[in-house]
Amino acid sequence: FYLPLFSLSFCLIRLFSFLTQGAVTDQLSRRQVRVYQLYSRTSGKHVQIHGKRVTATAEDGNLYARLFVETDTFGSRVRIRGAESGRYLCMNRKGKLVGKPNGRSKDCIFTEIVLENNYTAFQNAKYEGWYVAFTRKGRPMKASRTRENQREVHFIKRLHTGLPPFPNTDQSKPFEFIRFPSTRRAKRNRKIT
Fold first, then answer.
1. Where would one find the signal peptide in this protein (predicted)?
2. Domains in the chain, start-ordered, CATH in brackets?
């Protein structure tokens, strides 16, 4: 069995990239950015990043509740950035949620997990088993006390109802229907009344 040296090294590189796909930040592929709000199941409000503070007390359509969710790799790893504040949702080593201006570190990357009950949970990439969670009052919970099956870690992704997410969308016209004049029906197609 003969393989040229080039194809063997290419196969090894592809295998290595497949094995480390979820663990390493992907700098080559194009990032996707989605815009939505995160509705907390326990507080009944939306997550907001307001400076360094992160809470789940925002009403529907609040400017600070609009979040840009950027994909980090081919998998389900994401970075969450507040559209108004420009800060990233991060988790420090004590398990506290904070807003940071730079989201490149691993403590600002979360794995998006869609649960069986159709809620979404966000597990920190650096601290395995630690989830984004909020109390009934909308305060962040200590991540070391969270589990995937708790109500406090469950979120629903919702579209933002406020201003349009991109600057040029306010100039678009509403969809117009084209009206055609009614046509006479042939004898065989007439309705019998």
1. 1-22
2. 26-163 (2.80.10.50)
